[in-house]
Amino acid sequence: MAFLIRTIDFTADGREIVRDRPIEAASVSIGRAAENTLHLPDLAVEQEHAQIEPVADGRLRITAVGTLGFTMDGRKIMQAEFDPHAGHEFAFGTYRLTVSQDGSEPVTITVRQVIDNEGAGDVVRSFALSNAMPGKRAMAWVGLGLILLAFLAVPIYSNLSREPVKPNYRIPGATKWDASWSTGKLSQAHHGLEDNCEACHAKPFESVRDETCLTCHEKIGDHAEIDRQNKGLGPLAPFDAMLWSVAETFGKEGQNSCTTCHTEHEGAGKMAATPQQFCADCHDGMDSRLTDTKLANAADFGTAHPQLQAVFHPQLGSKTTQRLPLDKKPVEQHGLRFPHELHLNPRGGVARMAGNLGAEEGYGDKLVCADCHTPTADKAGFLPVDMEEDCESCHSLVYDKVGPTFRTLRHGDVAQLRADLAAMDRAPRRPIVSNRRRPGEFGVGGVYFQEFGRPQRTLVGINQALSRDGVCGECHYPTSTNGRLDVMPVHLRSTYLLNGWFDHKEHDKEKCSTCHEADTSKTSNDLLLPEVAVCRECHLGEDARKAEVPSSCAMCHSYHPKKGSLPDNHPTRKRDTVALLGRKPG
Predict the structure, then answer these.
(1) Nearest to residue 168, comparing CAs of 139, 192, 144?
(2) What is the mean pLDDT of residues 93-117?
(3) Which of 158, 259, 395, 506 has the smallest number of CB atoms closer than 10 Å to its CB?
(4) Which residues are CB-neighbours of 56 under 8 A, at least 6 positions away?
(5) DSSP code of 72?
């Protein structure tokens, strides 16, 4: 059936806008849903409200589809049949539909909305949620009160009324509803205190104090004496001084407090490293403020860092140590004779020995650094070389055989060596047959003797074992103690850098020879540590743009002594307290 949908709208000044839309449809649907033939956007109209369809004799039937009816010529009904030639008006909410027909023309449905200008807003507001709620001003004051109560009053009251306790990672804090005050996640070191803000923030509206940090970190090492640190600190720029003055006015501790260096709430993960500038504030030009200091000035590893200095033993057999810059080529006298070049030569006798031992014994076709140097569990350093574990595969200490059992000298105990050799049977020594070959003199057919001498008095065997050409003399320097033959004491250091550390694990992709150049060292007196220029091939200062590894001071140094990095007699190991800058000890 043919219909003409005529929509009448009004402009702001009251002019009519008429739009005609002819359609061919079996019926016309009326409702608020956009899918209807007549879309009436009024909350008083149902989604599917009514339907107009033709019946016999050119008449039309209008039927309410939902639960709400409509009005026809002023009467509220649910269904009606009518003659469109007579013309009828139907009301759906604020909309009026006039249905008419002239002769055989299409049925015309005229749609218009009846709202006067004064009541237009009331119609919309009558269906808005704001009509049932308090005014905006009242809501704003109520919201403000709830915010102050939940996020200020409750946290402050619960904090002030709590019983102060020592920070405990296993007990949540007593302050309620304080999560909104957090500015970010805690670092990995303090993540257990996420629900215990008062563990660090002991008082409301007061920054974290050094005393609070020391309740857990009570055994942290000193950096220097308080007065000396304050004297060594460089002057602040005028603007920085003003900022610190404002900060201290509002309760923040001085610029050398714990929180100045160790910032928190920067996100989960490791705590952010100390900025380079924190160290440079004192160490840049420090010799002009501390004229008696033995430390060289340092401000940037790439451009303003002194030569690395190593602690070593300069005198054979003595525990006395000396500290020299590496560019001075220190000569170390640790008490061992060990030429690295001889052992790392891929074509030498040692390489042949390693090849003969083979993979079953853990060797390749030549000797490499890892055959003797075993990393620690954390891969940061190396374990001390153990003679029996790392050397005896080639440097055998077997001196006799009784049946199927080999008798071995006890390494490191000269008195026990004398006793073992003195107890030997004075019968002629039998050669010890071995498939192994070692550098030096080979016996016929792979048979070799430990050079204790031919059958003669035991004293001669002991003398030859402890001589330069004997089994001990291969690695040790012979000497005498109280008229008896002995070997020089060995003093091998576990660390050479006094005020810093080096993590080998972070460099495991590099070859050992990149830094140590052991394959060209002809004597064990060489101190095989790289100079600072070698480090700078990869590492430059924190702000360097072209560095492979931008490196701050904290990469190798710590404000507090790092466990295992300093000897027991180092000055920072004398006390187990931390210096609180800006206040007197105790």
Answers:
(1) 192
(2) 88
(3) 506
(4) none
(5) E
What contacts 24+ positions apart, CB below 8 Å, involve 358-363?
Answer: 361/393, 363/393
Using alpha carbons, select from 244, 239, 278 the residue that is nearest to residue 258.
Answer: 278
- What is the per-residue burial (b if ≥16 Cβ within 10 Å, else e) of 341-378? eebbbeebbbbebbeebeeeeebeebbebebbbeeeee
Residue with structure tokens 């008429």?
18
Whose CA is closest to 568, among 108, 221, 118? 221
- Interval 518-540 mean pLDDT: 92
Give the pLDDT confidence score for residue 88 in this predicted structure.
93
Give residue 58's region: left, alpha or beta (phi > 0; psi -120 to 50): left
**Percent of the chain topping pLDDT 90:** 30
* Structural contact between residues 206 and 198, judged by C-beta atoms closer than 8 angstroms: no
Considering the entire predicted model, what is its pTM?
Answer: 0.59
Query: 222 falls in which pLDDT band (50, 70, 90)?
Result: low
For residue 116, the model assigns a pLDDT of: 60
pLDDT band for 565, please (50, 70, 90 cuts): very low
- Cα angle 328, 331, 337; round to 5: 155
pLDDT of residue 250: 80
User: In this structure, are strands 88-92 and 95-100 parallel, antiparallel, or unpaired?
Assistant: antiparallel
Q: What are phi and psi of 261, to 5 degrees?
A: -95, -45
Burial of 91 (0-12, 13-18, 19+ CB in 10 A): middle
Alpha-helical (H) ranges within 317-409 are 340-344, 349-357
Q: Residue 530: pLDDT above 80?
A: yes
Confidence of residue 81 (pLDDT cuts 50, 70, 90): very high
Euclidean distance between CA atoms 106 and 112, whole angstroms: 19
Altogether, the residues listed in the chain come to a count of 586
* Tokens representing residue 417 in the block: 């060596």
* DSSP helix/strand/coil, 463: helix
Cα–Cα distance, 396 to 408 (Å, whole number): 8
Q: Are 523 and 533 in contact (CB under 8 A)?
A: no
Q: How many CB atoms lie within 10 A of CB 210?
A: 19
Question: Residue 156: pLDDT band by 50, 70, 90 thresholds?
Answer: confident
DSSP string, 122-189: HHHHTTSGGGGS--HHHHHHHHHHHHHIIIIIHHHHHHHTSPP----TTS--S--S-GGG--SPPPGG
Q: Letter for the amino acid at 391?
A: C
Closest of 454, 462, 388 to residue 420, by C-alpha: 462
Phi, psi angles (nearest 5°) of residue 295? -85, 135
Residues 6+ apart with CB under 8 A from 309: 323, 324, 325, 326, 497, 498
Radius of gyration over alpha carbons of the chain, in Å?
Answer: 47
pLDDT score for 559: 78
CA atoms of 553 and 556, how far apart (whole Å): 6
| Residue 117 pLDDT greater than 80, yes or no | no
Residues 89-117 have a mean pLDDT of 88
Cα-Cα end-to-end distance for the chain: 102
